[in-house]
UniProtKB/TrEMBL annotation, chain A:
Protein name: Multiple sugar transport system permease protein
Higher taxonomy: Bacteria, Bacillati, Actinomycetota, Actinomycetes, Geodermatophilales
Localisation: Cell membrane
Gene Ontology biological process terms in this record: transmembrane transport
Segments forming domain ABC transmembrane type-1: 69-262
TrEMBL record, chain B:
Name assigned to this protein: Multiple sugar transport system ATP-binding protein
Location of region: Disordered: 408-435
Keyword Transport among UniProt keywords: yes
GO biological process: carbohydrate transport
InterPro entries to which the protein is assigned, alphabetical: AAA+_ATPase, ABC_transporter-like_ATP-bd, ABC_transporter-like_CS, ABC_transpr_MalK-like, ABC_transpr_MalK/UgpC-like, Mo/tungstate-bd_C_term_dom, NA-bd_OB-fold, OB_MalK-like
UniProt cross-references to Pfam families, sorted A to Z: ABC_tran (PF00005), OB_MalK (PF17912)
Xref: SUPFAM superfamilies: MOP-like, P-loop containing nucleoside triphosphate hydrolases
Domain named ABC transporter: residues: 4-235
Keyword entries, A-Z: ATP-binding, Cell membrane, Membrane, Nucleotide-binding, Sugar transport, Translocase, Transport
Gene Ontology MF, one: ABC-type transporter activity
Gene Ontology CC annotation, any one: ATP-binding cassette (ABC) transporter complex, substrate-binding subunit-containing
């Protein structure tokens, strides 16, 4: 690469990074502004303070925010876990076995994924009230599975297809049952795929607003995105902008931590050396 | 340690295409059997049916006296080396080799003992803690073999194990495999498309074509007494030359002059049609000026123009073009396509002494040893002059040699290791490996 094109690449990259990170920087800046400072017309707060954070963590809004944070974590982790296990088996079957209706399953999964969420919220709301799932954890976990499973099955089956057939056959010849071959050879090899899938599934569930606001009514199960929408200012003349910004920063942290944590596991190429090289 | 018997094995795929068609083959206990043939001949399918990775459409697969058609691979107790090694990338070399033992719940100290033994035999000792990704091709190959020899399997199966190695390493590993098999004395089935491996490794070689067996014999018999055009063309490098010929009395008229046949062969050929194919191996030719006076009368001399010569240091090849009738050319072209080669012109490849001064583009005088030529029926491909008795004698000799070698190898192994009692032959051989 010549120096000239290198410079252009750097300039381009910086532009894109600034473009992507600017809203986030803005939210961070907002979260440090006092209510009177919010519309000061400047990017940086004139007098940075932790006031907004103390409001949501210990102050007036903490009753709304902290249970919501707990709900969000619990519901999203359970949904991700179930979705990973189910999609692992489904993807294995799709990648390895020849059975009638394989295309149908993949097609249906895709159809579910592109189905607009908002159109099933109302029927679900009525159904959940009838059968007592309204405002409960399972009441959100089940719809979250419908959101995360299709994408999980698709990503995971792509990963499984990458694993050479011989791995499994070798294990069988070595004396493994189908289950042992799956557990001891295929799953470890698919681990990067499983982590990638888990992160994607977690984000999808974590970011959901439509189900969260419609299928819950109390602290019992309301997730963070819904709770953010219910924040109120100190008086009716005041917007809760600062508190919402602070909460948004806090809910972004687990996502960032997750990505940093698993970044190294998501490196493809773990199968290097399995077969001839 | 077991024999493998196949009785009328058929493999038919969903579309009705028979990949393996009515194959019956007996592999004796401790024998090294090679399955060889051009791509698509069904050799790998047959191997995978032995190990159980492929269903058998019909026929019986009997291993060690037990019919195994319906047994899963893990219940057959065979070990296999795959073409691409199929090492487990997330395990160390040690765990890779130990994997079959772990599955059979072998106690830890036993696992350590056996893995150490296997890694000693294969000189993998200093690599035990590494991951397969950090090994060279030859080392990976050895790890795959370690995984195969670490447990007492009934038989070893190899599926083109050397085809991913470079030529030099392939030669070394080839001798290594031969030594290992002799030492352990375990029944081995080895699939390859490389006829050098087939000739050097096998006690017996089974040549397959389009799913059916052409000939099962020792490498020597295959070379000297092939049953048909296919086997004759497949075995030998450079391949056998096929020249069109017509019979006149007891001599064959060929593009390279008359070839005199002895009484037995002349009788066999007589009355088998106008046009025949005579098969002559490159080394039956020689530069006429370099032939012993004593040998000269045993063959015929002809003059021909040399197209190209290849000097290889220890030997030299000359290419001599010849004219052939249309029918023969198309037949030979079809044969060469089937043998995975692309022979476009009708030319004879002739091996001459490396010191010969024959040069390209010149006419030269060649001598042809007519004692060993074979005559084939161009329609059926059948070898009309095959001496079945002589062939059987060659294979018999090879079998006797093998028994002797196995006994020698095992006896010497046992004295060196000092282990003389216990177990079957297999465990004795394993201990021998520990030296």
């Amino acid at each position: 690469m010549s120096t000239r094109s290198k410079v252009w690449w750097i300039v381009g990259s910086i532009l894109i990074i600034v473009y992507c990170l600017f809203p986030i920087a803005w939210i961070v800046s907002l979260s440090f502004k006092a209510p009177s400072d919010i519309s000061n017309g400047q990017f940086l707060p004139t007098d940075p303070s932790w006031g907004n954070y103390s409001t949501i963590l210990t102050g007036a809004a903490s009753d709304l925010f902290l249970p919501a944070l707990r709900n969000s974590f619990g519901i999203c982790l359970i949904a991700t876990f179930i979705s990973c296990i189910l999609s692992m088996f489904a993807a294995y079957a799709i990648a390895r076995l020849d059975f009638p209706g394989k295309k149908l399953i993949l097609g249906t999964a895709l159809a579910v994924a592109i189905f607009p969420v908002i159109s099933i919220v109302t029927p679900l709301f009525n159904l959940w009230r009838q059968i007592g799932l309204y405002d409960t954890w399972p009441g959100l976990i089940i719809p979250y599975l419908s959101l995360t499973l299709p994408i999980s099955i698709w990503t995971m089956s792509a990963f499984f297809r990458e694993i050479p057939w011989e791995m499994e056959q070798a294990a069988q010849v070595d004396g493994a049952t189908t289950w042992q071959a799956f557990r001891k050879v295929i799953v470890p090899l698919a681990a990067p795929g499983v982590f990638t899938t888990a992160i994607i599934a977690f984000f999808i569930a974590w970011n959901d607003f439509a189900y969260g606001i419609s299928l819950t009514s109390t602290d019992a199960s309301r997730p963070v995105p819904a709770a953010l929408g219910l924040f109120t200012g100190a008086s009716q003349f005041e917007d809760p902008t600062g508190a919402i910004a602070a909460a948004a920063v806090i809910v972004t942290i687990p996502v960032v931590v997750l990505v940093l944590l698993f970044q190294r596991r998501i490196v493809a190429g773990l199968t290097n050396g399995a077969v001839k090289g | 340690m077991a024999s493998i018997e196949m009785k009328n094995i058929v493999k038919q795929y969903g579309d009705g295409y028979p990949a393996v068609n009515d194959v019956s083959l007996d592999i004796a206990d401790g024998e090294f059997m090679i399955l060889v043939g051009p791509s698509g001949c069904g050799k790998s399918t047959l191997l995978r049916m032995i190990v159980g990775l492929e269903d058998i459409t019909s026929g019986d697969m009997v291993i060690g006296g037990k019919r195994v058609n319906d047994l899963a691979p893990r219940e057959r107790n065979l070990s296999m080396v795959f073409q691409n090694y199929a090492l487990y990338p997330h395990m160390t070399v040690y765990e890779n080799i130990a994997f079959p033992l772990r599955l059979s719940k072998t106690p830890d100290d036993e696992v350590r003992r056996r893995v150490t033994e296997a890694s000693d035999v294969l000189e993998l000792k200093e690599h035990l803690e590494r991951k397969p990704a950090n090994l060279s091709g030859g080392q990976r190959q050895r790890v795959a073999m370690g995984r195969a020899i670490v447990r007492q399997a009934e038989a070893f199966l190899f599926d083109e194990p050397l085809s991913n190695l470079d030529a030099k390493l392939r030669g070394q590993m080839r001798t290594e495999i031969a030594r290992l098999q002799r030492r352990l004395g375990i029944t081995t089935v080895y699939v390859t498309h490389d006829q050098t491996e087939a000739m050097t490794l096998g006690d017996r070689v089974c040549v397959l074509r389009k799913g059916s067996i052409q000939q099962v014999a020792s490498p020597r018999e295959l070379y000297e007494q092939p049953v048909n055009l296919f086997v004759a063309g497949f075995i030998g490098s450079p391949p056998m030359n096929f020249l069109p010929a017509t019979l006149e009395g007891d001599r064959l008229q060929t593009p390279f002059g008359p070839v005199v046949l002895d009484e037995r062969r002349a009788a066999a050929v007589r009355g088998r049609g106008e046009l025949l194919l005579v098969g002559i191996r490159p080394e039956y030719f020689e530069d006429a000026t370099l032939v012993d006076e004593a040998k000269r009368p045993l063959g015929s001399v002809f003059r021909a123009r040399v197209d190209v010569t290849e000097w290889l240091g220890d030997s030299q090849y000359a290419y001599i073009p010849y004219e052939a009738p249309e029918a023969v050319t198309t037949q030979l072209r079809a044969l060469s396509r089937e043998l995975d080669s692309e022979e476009l012109r009708t030319q004879a490849i002739v091996s001459i002494d490396a010191t010969s001064r024959i040069r390209e583009g010149r006419e030269a005088e060649f001598w042809l040893d007519s004692r060993k030529v074979h005559v084939f029926d161009p329609q059926t491909g059948e070898n009309l002059t095959r001496d079945a008795e002589a062939g059987a004698r060659l294979t018999q000799m090879a079998t006797e040699d093998r028994v002797e070698q196995v006994q020698d190898a095992q006896a010497s192994g046992q004295t060196v290791s000092g282990a003389t009692t216990g177990g079957g032959q297999g465990s004795g051989a394993h201990r021998a490996g520990a030296v």
